[in-house]
Amino acid sequence: MAAVTESQPPIATPDPGADERPSKSMTIGAVCKALRQEFPDISISKIRYLEDQKLLEPRRTPGGYRLYAAVDVARLRTILRMQRDEFLPLRVIRQELAAGRVDADEPPIPAAAASEPRPRRRPSMSVTGGGALYTLEDVVEDTRAEPRLVAELEDYGVIKGEVRAGTKYYDETEREIVRAVTELARYGVGGRNLRAFRTSADREAALLQQILAPALRSRNTERRKEAVEALENLAAVTTHLKHLLLIRDLRKIVSP
Fold it and tell me: Where on the tree of life does the source sit, at the highest rank (predicted)?
């Protein structure tokens, strides 16, 4: 089983080409730690996977240690944002990067624009866990949903919740489902209308499970990790495909 952490590389002595290298480089562990606040599900294995897919090319020391310069970290941040915010598959992300796209760190908000509402960034979700747990009161306060809407979503099997010590909790994914449905409710979409979404999601999950079932059941830890990464990527690809199909059909509605 491969180690999931890398020890700090030995301190290298100065060489003639040192002035051409980044003034400050980070190990893969340091990069993972630096980005975890924005991307809670980031892991060393995920960064290595992106490297295996030729999306990242960190410099290597003579001893084989990965060293990430500022430009490498910015590239990684861009990749993770495109996966999280735009649900882009790796093939499309590779094309975006080849076209020169690299997201810079967000600049300070100008004073004049500080009072303007900013689009809410979707939290990063992972298939390996539901994140933190929230009570009904927490969910209602955070999403501004009506308690009856949450109950309706449970009735239709869209969310389930989990009872612990007599109190029902909802994970982070379910909280975001409630938030999305609250937005849809403003347009008159109710819980009963969500059966189509739930049925579609169930079918897609079954298909992806069928594709990756052997690897996900493997006794080899590394193979299972790779399967989970592949599952995340397939989920992004199918989501992007659904978006494209939806846009195509909606164009027929608005076109004269």
Answer: Bacteria
